[in-house]
Write a structure and sequence with these properties.
Layout: H1 6-17, H2 20-27, H3 31-43, H4 45-58, H5 66-78, H6 86-96, H7 102-113, H8 116-123, H9 132-143, H10 150-165, H11 181-189, H12 201-209, H13 214-228, H14 232-248, H15 253-264, H16 270-277
Amino acid sequence: MMIINTSRVLEVSSSIRSIKNIIAELRKKDPQYLAVKNLVDSLGMNKASLLTIINSLISYQLSIPGEVYWERFSRYFSKPGASLNTSDLRKFLLETGCSRLLDQKMRRVDKILTSNIAEKLLINGLFYCDNVEALIKELSSTLNASKDSKTVVFAAKMYSYICDIAGKKTNLENIAIPVDYRNSLLALTSCIIVDCRGHSLRDCARKFSSSMYSKYVRDAWMNVCKLSGIPCLELDVFTWIFAGVAVKADFNVLETTKIFKEKYGVDLDLNVARILLECVENYVR
């Protein structure tokens, strides 16, 4: 059965390419970017870089939206008395109500805090800006995880915000998109992934977020990225925000563009939104 729809990949790529300037503009309006900037302003580049990477690696199975989670994280660790250690990170997750898989997350924190990555970043927070792929390789090795795993590539994306804030350009070519619920959802609503027709859209998105099926979403978006000329970690700024807004608008195209404008001050072409949400009706909601 066909899962990646090549003709739709071409159409979505063309549409995405037409809003390249909007995607670049949106980067600094991303609530997660603003959260990282607050950490840098409060703690300095070195400590903020390590905190940003650690939080990226444990920001899964959340009970609140990612935008809210990062804002709370930034506020919590910017206040006097908060420390970069396992105890305070555990306390934050408990207070935020994001304690699912808590022990697993704390094991990840311990591994990073005792790694060469932490040593390098606490001396020079911009150490990996010239080679983000080296950061991915080291995170993958330290955590015994795939280099394409969601949290590893998401950590690279969030670290690129650190570099951007410092005025350093990063090369994000050939790095996969983080395959989470939102990017899986948008792959379905845009029909670059074709599956589960007649079934629940949300259930299908969860299916394609799983390790067994995520490669299809990853490959589909990688094709879009190559054809549009936009690295996937840059495109993810747009797809992640857009999908979140679309859910809030119940996938109504006009309402999605309206909320997008209200929240981010960006005029999104109605036709782009239509193409990205064109296949919603193929699924049960």
